[in-house]
Amino acid sequence: MKLLSLAEELRGNAYPGRGIVIGKSKDGKTAVTAYFIMGRSENSRNRVFVEDGAGIRTQAFDPAKLEDPSLIIYAPVRVLGNKTIVTNGDQTDTIYDGMDRQMTFEQSLRCRQYEPDGPNYTPRISGIMHIENGKYNFAMSILKSSDGNPEANNRYTYAYENPLAGEGRFIHTYARNENPLPSFEGEPKRVEIDGDIDSFTNMIWENLNEDNKVSLFVRFIDIETGNYESRIINKNK
Fold first, then answer.
1. Angle value at C-alpha 47, between 115 and 216, nearest 5 degrees
2. What 3-state class would DSSP assign to 73?
3. What's the DSSP call for residue 9?
4. CB neighbours of residue 198 within 10 Å
5. Which domains does the chain have, with CATH numbers?
6. For residue 158, with 0-12 CB atoms within 10 Å meaning exposed, 13-18 middle and 19 or more buried, which class applies?
7. Cα gap 81→55, rounded to integer Å
8. How confident is the model at residue 237 (pLDDT cuts 50, 70, 90)?
9. Do the Cβ atoms of 138 and 219 come closer than 8 Å?
10. Peptide linkage before 150 cis (omega within 30 of 0)
């Protein structure tokens, strides 16, 4: 698989929807993740990321304008011991609860499927980062309809052991900006990861579509110590 420019991938798609990037810094010392949300409706755009313990949650920017909270208010990031969970919905809690009961990442998601928002049937995308004793691996999952047909729920899990420095994987909900929105297809894209946390954060934010971007979260985790730094950017201020 070709190593792609993350900036070009973002710049070339006006509406990838929600996206997760997981990988490793170029110096090999840091586990990297990013999660962004975009929106086309007023309800989707009326959001911000806020810190919530070691994780984050979404929150209505203007509570008076909040319509249906069911698919837009959730905790995208939670931390369970040495595991960091990143998802585009309330399956964050499903994974957290399952793994807390000694289930695997994949087993925890067996009770979930794509979102009930026909005709898009938005995929549920998820990631898990595991850092222990100086070692790092991660996995990503997508639960999606069968090419827009809700009668079938397709499950795909991709695991990456000892990921290479300067590389990551990028998965997003929508392949392109159409109506209805077509789901992401194939293995998560292999993308380059470069720069420190601030330059990486700025690169993502600057290349997301100006009209549709809403919020961005980035975290760098030291693989040896487990210490982390995070950044949040919200369009609504």
1. 85
2. coil
3. H
4. 12
5. 6-234 (3.60.20.20)
6. middle
7. 12
8. very high
9. no
10. no
Q: Specify the length of the chain in residues.
A: 237
Distance from C-alpha of 229 to C-alpha of 201, rounded to nearest angstrom = 12
pLDDT digits over 104-128, tens only?
Answer: 999 999 999 999 999 999 999 999 9
Q: For residues 221 and 129, is the Cβ–Cβ distance under 8 A? A: yes
Structure tokens given for 110: 């067996």
Please state the rounded mean pLDDT for residues 77-89: 98
Q: Please state, in angstroms and as integers, the Cα–Cα distance from residue 218 to each residue in 66, 160, 229, following that order.
A: 25, 20, 8
Burial class (CB in 10 A: 0-12, 13-18, 19+), 49: buried
pTM of the model: 0.98
- Cβ atoms of residues 130 and 138 within 8 Å: yes
* Calpha distance 72→203 (Å, rounded): 25
Question: What string of DSSP letters covers 141-161?
Answer: EEEEEETTEEEEEEEEEEEEE
Q: What is the DSSP secondary structure assignment for residue 133, as one 8-state letter?
A: T
**Burial class for 98, CB neighbours closer than 10 Å (0-12, 13-18, 19+):** buried
Q: Cα 223 to the chain's mean position, in Å?
A: 20
How much is the pLDDT for 2?
A: 96
Confidence of residue 28 (pLDDT cuts 50, 70, 90): very high
* Cβ neighbours for 70, distance < 8 A, ≥ 6 positions apart: none
Give 186 or 68, the one with higher predicted confidence. Answer: 186
| Contact status, residue 121 vs residue 144, Cβ threshold 8 Å | yes
How far is the C-alpha of 17 from the C-alpha of 38, rounded, in Å?
Answer: 5
